[in-house]
Write a sequence for this structure.
């Protein structure tokens, strides 16, 4: 979720229109093929397409060792809020799929 402040939301969107090259590289290197973020009001939803070998644990370890990713994540805390029920320091959480039309 985002802080419910129109100026902060606009800044967050501006950062995501042109993410830092190091962030793009980190995303792709981790095995993420495509990533989309949607917003309604201050609610965010991320959809990722990943390779079969992708692991959130490996992505987390890579991010922890990447100073530029850590700088980006610290900056994004200015705009983002932890989702209720998430662990401390956690911004994004996995969701359970409850419906799929073509299954």
């Amino acid at each position: 979720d985002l802080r419910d402040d129109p100026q902060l939301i606009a800044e967050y969107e501006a950062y995501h229109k042109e993410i830092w090259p190091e962030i793009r590289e980190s995303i792709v290197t981790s095995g993420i093929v495509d990533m989309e973020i949607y917003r309604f009001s201050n609610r965010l939803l991320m959809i990722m397409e990943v390779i079969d070998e992708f692991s959130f644990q490996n992505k987390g370890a890579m991010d922890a060792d990447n100073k530029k990713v850590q700088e980006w994540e610290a900056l994004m805390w200015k705009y983002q809020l932890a989702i209720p029920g998430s662990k401390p320091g956690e911004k994004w959480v996995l969701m359970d799929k409850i419906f799929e039309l073509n299954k």
